[in-house]
Specification:
With 316 residues, the chain is of the alpha/beta class. It contains twelve helices and ten strands. Helix 3 (71-80) links the parallel strand 2 and strand 3 (86-89). The radius of gyration is 24 Å and the shape is elongated.
């Protein structure tokens, strides 16, 4: 379930629904190649309906059935493109029997399209179980790629894109959220999270506390009329959203990787001692390593030495 699916922006052209892809992927007067039976993972717009590709529209029109999260949401998209394909619901609460029936359609030589409410299926939704079942049944599986809010937010963030981790939604409870963030603290990669508006300020605060004031971006309403990408340090973003009303629409958080900072030993000791006032030795080391980019093992070794010298090693 790709986020940012509410208030879908209108504006798709009528030509997009009827366009047929040629060999070069461009609309052509030539007839499109016949679509062979199989399971098609079809990406749909995350906001702007003009982002439905001609190939995706062609597959949805040619399919025998479309498996979708919510038939009402997908129905609006199909109606705008003049597509009348039969839909069946497939979502988090669908039974194994429903999945088996969908696979049977594929095995019977039909064309089945899998869509989510918005974006690319399998991104934070149960579609992977259907794909796994299709693979196990030796059924043909392919994809019609398209929009995905995590990647859209990443490329708009201005943060490094050479290595990144999509981590889905952060846990709603503060302790679990902080434990989850700590798992990624030393990872030298850009981090991508999904978040709800009501938890945004709390999540930014937890990220800033554990990762330090790393560069980050808050992206929302992507591809829509009121698209917004706010870029700043984590602590600055946390302060902004603590004081501001909860924003509208689903949110994607993008957090830059740790930046190595050259620190004198004395400066590193100060950071470690400050962190150990409220944290265990292990957590303090992880926090300082994440904030400075210093090797975690070296920081932990130094933190342990300081704790022993001060008689607090029992908190390691």
């Amino acid at each position: 379930m790709d986020p940012i699916s509410d208030d879908i922006q209108k504006g798709a052209s009528d030509d997009a629904a009827g366009a047929q892809p040629s060999d070069g992927g461009q609309p052509s007067k030539r007839r499109a190649s016949p679509i062979t039976p199989g399971l098609y993972i079809v990406s749909t717009p995350i906001g702007n309906l003009g982002d439905l590709t001609p190939r995706a529209a062609n597959i949805l029109a040619a399919a025998n059935i479309i498996a979708c999260e919510d038939t009402r949401v997908t129905g609006r998209l199909l109606n705008l493109h003049g597509i009348r394909t039969r839909m069946i619901a497939y979502h988090d609460h669908s039974s194994a029997a429903t999945r088996d029936r969908i696979i049977q359609h594929v095995k019977d030589g039909e064309i089945v399209a899998l869509v989510s409410d918005a974006g690319t299926p399998l991104i934070s939704d149960p579609g992977y179980r259907l794909v796994r079942a299709a693979v196990e049944a030796a059924a043909a599986v392919t994809a019609a790629p398209g929009p995905a809010s995590p990647l859209t937010a990443l490329v708009l963030s201005g943060l490094p894109t050479d290595r990144f981790l999509f981590a889905g939604y952060l846990p709603p409870k503060d302790k679990a959220r902080r434990d989850n963030i700590a798992e990624f603290a030393a990872l030298r990669a850009t981090l991508i999270f999904l978040e709800s508006p009501k938890r945004l300020a709390a999540s930014l605060t937890a990220l800033a506390d554990i990762l330090g004031n790393r560069p980050a971006a808050v992206a929302r309403e992507l591809t829509k009329l009121h698209e917004e990408v706010r870029r700043n340090g984590l602590a600055d973003l946390a302060a902004h959203y603590r004081d501001a009303p909860a924003p509208k629409g689903e949110v994607v958080l993008v957090v830059g990787p740790p930046v190595a900072v050259a620190l004198a030993a004395a400066d590193l000791d100060v950071l470690i001692r400050d962190a150990m006032v409220t944290m265990s030795v292990r957590d303090a080391a992880a926090t300082v390593a994440a904030a400075t980019g210093a090797p975690r093992k070296e920081v932990y070794s130094r933190a342990l030495a300081l704790a022993r010298a001060e008689g607090t090693e029992g908190d390691a």
